[in-house]
Amino acid sequence: YCVGADGALKRVESIKVANMAMVHDFAVTQRHVVFLLPPFVYDVDRSHAGMSFLDSHVWRPELGMRVLVLDKDDVTRVRWLELPAGFVFHLGNAWSSPDGQEIHFDYIRSDDASVVTTSLRELMRGQIRPSPGARYTQVQLNLRTGRAEQFS
Description:
This protein is mostly beta strands. The chain has helices at residues 44-48, 114-124, and strands at 2-3, 9-11, 27-28, 32-37, 40-42, 57-59, 65-71, 78-83, 87-96, 102-110, 135-142, 147-151.
C-alpha cells in the first residue's frame, strides 16, 4: 500500500511469495521496504484440517530467513537475500547508505519459533517468563553484491 501525504491511497501492489511466512513487522528506509520472512510458514492443509492459525504454521529451518527488499517507487524491483534461519517479531532503526545500496537495521532474533509456539501461549495463560534466546541483532544488506550479514 502506498498512502500519500494527504492520506489518500495512491497505489496497491501484491507480490507472490512461496512458503508464506508469519510476518509481523517490516523496516522502511528512504528508498526501500524490507521484510524478514522467517522459516515459520503457513501450511494450508493444516488450516483446512481445523488447526488454529498459529498451529497451521510449521518450522522449516531449511528455508533460512529470507529477506525481501522492495523498491518503494517500483515494487517490481524485488531483491531476495538470505540470512541464517531464525525467528523475528520486530525490526527497528532502519537506514541506508546515501546511494541506497547498503541497508542497515536491527531486529530481535530467536533461534526458532518457540517465542510464539510456547512463550506466547504461556503468556496468554498468565505465565510470564522471559523469551529464551531472544537477542538484539544488527543486519547489513549489500544490494550491490547480494550479501546479507548479521551480527548479534
